[in-house]
């Protein structure tokens, strides 16, 4: 591959690949990029497309079968290695609700992790109108993806597209929002601005972050900084919280006209709205006159720690909310979630792998 960037965008499954292609359109050719699917018929950019599980699924997709998609990804996992040579940070975009977006994403993230590549997963969860089966499929795989990945953002499509009228507007908004987050990381890695986050700090943040929430907002005009603070305070994607926010990453993307007072306004607004109990607040700016002239975009990533979880300080000083292992109280489930059945042929019934504990398949959390 000619692009030797250390960051790569990977879209998985039909929905994930569609979003990833949209993000790439926003970047042009510069972004190192791969789509992975079990379905050979989906629109793809051949050079950047990897078909997995061809022998098992004959290029027809998994048809909502999580287990078949996982096995397809396992069959083909070696073929991903040459595509990710030299990558240090992977942003994986997926849409949960089908088989491939859930099952293959899990296997791919595990592979990336085993190769020492940091992973950030952005995963949409289905619209409520798509029905309970898809929701259940999504819920079942979420804890496993979260366990395997560095930082994970689950994005409810219902919330992401609130107030959108037409379906294509809604999808465009999904792409735009995630594109802003990808832009932030890509620019921080490739072309940092004045307030930079060094690669080591990003690496620590991503390695230990666990589940987070994020939103991206844009404004122009004389009151753009205040607008942004207001919009972030009201952002539906940031609203749901199961615990206090422990770490914040605030990325300000702007042109050369960004004023110091505007950075202060945004920073103060974010701290006042979300930062009361945050022990880590990272602010980074990306300066790109060509793309952001006249406007400011802010990507806000919030990491919260569940009250039951321990936290730990990483060498980079960023709080982690990944669960510490507490053998006497906590039920430890590895990334695969198949326990001692790890190397056995799965027991498949009704598209479910019965060797995976029921609470994991059903997405039920246990208070032990
Ligand atoms: N943003 C966006 N989301 C989509 C699109 N198509 C499907 N989705 C979402 O993606 C979820 C998963 O569906 P698919 O992507 O078709 O499934 P898959 O991951 O390819 O898995 P299988 O086809 O079952 O192997 C759906 O429940 C939708 O919520 C799309 O074009 N754009
Ligand atoms: Mg598909």
Q: How does this structure look, described?
A:
The chain is 38% helix and 22% strand. It folds into 2 domains: 7-190, Tubulin/FtsZ, GTPase domain (Rossmann fold, 3-Layer(aba) Sandwich); 211-320, 2-Layer Sandwich (60s Ribosomal Protein L30, Chain: A). Helix 3 (66-76) packs parallel to helix 4, helix 4 (100-114) runs parallel beside helix 5 and helix 9 (224-234) packs parallel to helix 11 (260-274). Residues 306-340 have low confidence and may be disordered. The protein is globular and about 60 Å long. The protein has helices spanning 13-27, 54-57, 66-76, 100-114, 132-148, 157-160, 167-190, 199-208, 224-234, 236-239, 260-274, 289-292, 358-361, and strands spanning 7-12, 33-37, 49-51, 89-95, 118-125, 151-156, 210-220, 245-254, 280-287, 295-304, 312-313, 319-320, 348-349, 352-353. The chain is built from 13 helices and 14 strands. The longest helix has 24 residues, at 167-190. The strands form 3 sheets. It has a 10-stranded mixed sheet with strand order 3-2-1-4-5-6-7-10-8-9, sandwiched between helices. A hairpin with a 2-residue loop joins strand 13 (348-349) and strand 14. By secondary structure, the protein is an alpha/beta fold. Magnesium ion binds at residues 13-14, 39, 61, 98, 100.
CATH topology of the largest domain: Rossmann fold
Helix-strand pattern, N to C? EHEEHHEHEHEHHHEHHEHEHEEEEEH
Strand order of the largest sheet: 3-2-1-4-5-6-7-10-8-9
Bound molecules: guanosine-5'-triphosphate, magnesium ion
The value of Rg in angstroms is 20 Å
Assigned CATH architecture of the largest domain? 3-Layer(aba) Sandwich
Report the total helices.
13
Which percent range fits the helix content? 25-40%
Largest sheet: 10 strands, mixed
C-alpha termini separation:
48 Å
CATH hierarchy class name of the largest domain: Alpha Beta
How much β-strand is present in the residues? 15-25%
User: Average pLDDT value?
Assistant: 81
Secondary structure: number of strands? 14
Structurally, how many domains make up the residues?
2
Low-confidence stretches: 306-340
Category by helix and strand content: alpha/beta
Note the overall shape: globular
- The CATH H-level superfamily of the largest domain is Tubulin/FtsZ, GTPase domain
